[in-house]
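User: I'll paste a sequence; please echo it back and then give the predicted structure.

Assistant: Echoing your sequence first, then the prediction.
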Amino acid sequence: MAIARSTDYRRIATEEGWITPEMMRMYLRILETKSIVDPGFYSLWGFFGTSQSERARLLFERIQDIGERRIADMEAAGIDMQLLMLTSPGVQIFDPETATALSISTNDTVAQAIRDRPDRYAGLAAIPPHAPQAAAKELERAVRQLGLKGGLINSHTQGTYLDDPHYWDIFAAAEALDVPIYLHPNTPPPQMIEPFLSRTLDAAIYGFAVETGLHALRLIVSGLFDRFPRLQIVLGHLGEGLPYWLSRVDFMHGGIVRANRSPGVRALQRRPSDYLRENFHYTTSGMAWEPPISYVQRVIGHDRVLYAMDYPYQYVPEEVAAMDALPLDAMQKRAFFQTNAERLFRL
């Protein structure tokens, strides 16, 4: 199926990875020195950073390019704009001071790429969650001064999760700035990953969804959205499986609360499914398949589902034609590809 070159909507891809050559060199140095304890990092970047396979080499080249090669790939696929985000695990594997400095430098770099091609790129800010006050400050600088469109957090940070109020300065800043936080996957942390590794299930095939879906549920159950009711979180991969669990999560959460089963689970102002419908948006990254897309649109709402490709991890130009063929009316299709992203990210 040919990709239409002229449509009445712009195709905006909203989960598109990149990394600076500087940070890639730092990743490669970690692989050489084994200087951190993170089996998931070594599994993921041990492959994409050092394998000579065609898949790994192409990704290694593409992910460091936010210039003409990337735009040529966008042209080939029929993508009008990419929302750039620092690939997993981003700055979060480094110590807080280094992570803060890298957040600033990478945000400056992506902002310059956007200034060079504002017709093709927008971006999210990298922030260091393990330095919450610095993260909030950098999010504000990136949004107000650099024009970035929200924050990017690659799920857990060295095994810690953002449901701890210690981190909530970040969410206070996002709500005050009225920008979303994209909760992008990370490989499972050391305390979780072992059963995944022997079958290479730790990354996009399954581990990403398990770990990030867990993180999102922790945020809901913590009462985060009762404290910050206007906060918006974005999940990729059609919600990491959570839209399929709406009824069961409501039922089981209610039972835990009524039984006073755990001090970590208290009554919320709304049902968990309400937060998933009202405080989350969902992108299709890596999930270019009509049945689950249509399902999430039906149970969550057409206004909260956005197109994404997951470039360069899943660069499949032909998927764009398949997405053009989704059973949507003209207004729904324009919302899916364009206006939902424009509204959420203020493009």
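The chain has 15 helices and nine strands. The first helix runs from residue 21 to 33.
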